[in-house]
Amino acid sequence: MARSRLFLFTHWPVLLLVGTLVPYAVARLVHGEGFNPPTDDRLSMVAEWSMVAVALAAARRAGNKQPEMWWAGGAVLAQVGADTYWLLVQDESGYVPTPSPGDAGYLLFYVLMLGVLIAWIRRWLRTVALPVLLDTAVGTSGAAAVLAVLLQPVLTARSAEALDLGTVINVAYPLLDLILIAILAGVAAFQGGQGSWHWVLLTGGLLLFTAADVVYALVDANGGYSVGSYLDIEWALGIFLIVLWMDRASRPGTARVLHHRPAQGLAVPGVATLAGLGVLLLGSQQQVSVLALVLASATLVLAAIPLAFRQRLLRKLARTDELTGLPNRRALYTDAPVRLAGGTARQALMLLDLDRFKDVNDSLGHDLGDALLIQVAARLSGQLRPADLLARLGGDEFAILLADADEARATEVAGRIRDTLNQPMRVGGISLLTTVSIGIALSPLQGNELRLLLRKADMAMYKAKSSRSGHHLYTSADDTHGEERLRVLTELRTALAEDQFVMHYQPKVDLDTGRVNGAEALVRWNHPQRGLLPPSDFLSLAEESGLMHQLTLVALSKSLDQAARWKARNTPLAVAVNISASSLVDTQFPAKVAGLLALRGLTGTALVLEIPEEFLLADREKARVILTTLRNQGIQIAVDDFGTGYSTLSYLRDLPIDELKLDSSFIGPMADSPRAASLVASTIALAHGLGLRMVAEGVESGAIYDELSRYGCDRVQGHFMSHALPAEELDDWISHREAAPGVPASPVIVAIPSSG
Fold first, then answer.
1. What pLDDT is attached to residue 708?
2. 756 domain-assigned
3. Per-residue 3-state assignment (H helix, E strand, C coil) for 499-518
4. Same domain for 701 and 586?
5. What is d(CA 663, CA 576) in angstroms, rounded to the nearest whole number?
6. Are residues 274 and 359 in the same domain?
């Protein structure tokens, strides 16, 4: 959030807005009230038309995904166009007759901004609970009642005028202000005053604008307004905030929905109720318009709905997850024990956890993470029967209690859930793939108490996650898994603190020359009791526990230490590091890599970073920034496990990439499958057509080695050449293989793979 707010004040639209508005505001304050041509004709028009330019750019950026942005852009254009007309046709006293074409622009601003608010509100109106709507209605009517009292002198004066088009237009302005204020108060009641800061920009802009309108209406009723008033600055600031909201809300990853905050939501209805009571008391002492009295009465009636009814609705709200609309943890703990109480009906409790959901929040932001959870909830609901209970427990964790379910049905439902969640989801203009780990416990076979079943389903879920099997049915053997996991996690933290990790290196062979031109560094855990452990024994736990970034930096440091030793012996090899998504979301990561290279006297050409394909697909703009920064240091970029994920391939065109690593799952079937061989050949041709190197990993036989050579693959690695070796053994292996002393300088490839 801090980074996003800093960006707010450093990119060109904001610089343009501030750079034109500030000189105008300063000039207006210095000159004081009264028309001043340089200020009001020139500086004001430069500032306002700059706002139009930024607004239309934001609308164009949003396109059809947010059509309300075009309405907001049109509103800004209408307002500025009307101001321009006013300046062009006013007489020396600043008078412009009413009605005029300028009035059409001003009225159009209101209509279009009301359309923007309605477009936003309709996104949540159908799904919110009735108490929220009641609070919103109380806030709306209370604000409208107060504003009707404030505007009474204006409305009274206008209604006394002859009924013509000019009078109707003059009355329309305060009434439209009243509607805007009422809607904003209702939204404030809904959000409890805690809306996202993007929404606060829009709200603040409209409040400033309508406040200036109200003051103008009161002043102008006595003929006291002319161009050059301080009100002109307030209108300009209101439009400035609206345009700033457009610029930020039209960018990918920003919040586009309203979120209800029930804890804070009582403040606005409470104030509105007191305001309605105050208007009625005022009406008993002096003359108040019928409109104000009606609105105040409506406020009290809405606030006085029977408390028991509201409490019943609030209890329902307390059992509902506010993000997805599903039953929440409280509802599960209330309803599930009743369903399990019989002890004889077959039921299955399923615990679901999205894999690597933290990476989505870290790389794309919590707003898009929330949008993804909403889609996940909808897909889960589509796979269940009415008698099944689905609840969101919090974060990315869901629970399902399947009615009339044995092992076969529970397994079948788990498979369907995995299949539906494996389909790409469109979130904020980005196509995301998500996988899920599911733990299953059966009742009454494995118990009929909810807490016991949750504990067993949780063990099974972590078993599914660690084995990457997708789902797992609890067995008695899993009982030690929770304790084992905590023990290993403690040992893993100790291993990082005590430097228990070592690197092994698998050589990479150039198919044209047959010489070694790099090595992939694979991390091993030198466990004090269990000996040398492969990555498959601890990497998944490191990911789940948030230790992967720290482990990545350890492996990178050790690999670069070895690269420096090779360089000192005049046998330079470079190292390629497979970087986890948790490292790539660290904005300081490129600087850390540069520091590690400089500390060892290495240049960027000594390093190739292997990037997971899913990171490149998830947020291409962020990937472009990070990869470009690394590339500018001379570091080469490789795409790891290429082809294993859902890919549009367009990122190969857009991002700075040097190398593709074809996953071993494509290489193994080549010997027996012509289609697999054809796919590999086509992928190699694609890489070369884009000017990229192709590296094949998992080469296990001479036949595959020869076939890859025939297809033009650049480099290979695999057990056919050599297993991963300690650095000293790799040096011996190379010296026996190479006829000439030394190895041509080229990058070493450091990686932290999922296995190997």
1. 92
2. no
3. CCEEEEEEEEEECCCCCEEE
4. yes
5. 16
6. no
- Which tokens sit at 51? 């706002």
Domain of 662 in residue numbering reads as: 487-750
Across 314-345, b (16+ Cβ under 10 Å) vs e yields: beebebbbbbbbbbbeebbeebbeebbeeeee
Q: Note the pLDDT tens digit of each residue in 38-95.
A: 776 778 888 888 889 988 988 888 877 778 889 889 999 998 898 888 777 766 655 5
* Same-domain status, 412 and 540: no
3-class SS of residue 521: strand
Question: How many other CB atoms are there within 10 angstroms of residue 53's CB atom?
Answer: 15
Looking at the fold, whether 453 and 544 belong to one and the same domain comes out as no
Residue type for position 384: L
Which tens digits make up the pLDDT trace of 564-611?
998 998 888 888 888 887 787 777 888 999 999 999 999 988 898 988
**Residue 384's domain is classified under what CATH number?**
3.30.70.270
- Write the pLDDT tens digit of every residue in 465-515: 877 788 999 887 766 556 677 788 889 999 999 999 999 998 998 898 888
**Number of domains comprising the chain:** 3
Give domain status of residue 320, yes or no.
Answer: no
Query: In terms of C-beta distances under 8 Å and separation of at least 24 residues, what long-range contacts does 252-257 make, across chains too?
Result: 252/428, 252/429, 252/430, 252/621, 253/364, 253/365, 253/367, 253/368, 253/428, 253/619, 254/198, 254/365, 254/367, 255/196, 255/198, 255/199, 255/367, 256/66, 256/367, 256/428, 257/123, 257/124, 257/371
Mark which of 474, 497, 514 sits at the end of a domain.
474
Same-domain check for residues 275 and 342: no
- 606 located within any domain: yes
**Would you say 627 and 605 are in contact if contact means Cβ atoms under 8 Å apart?**
no
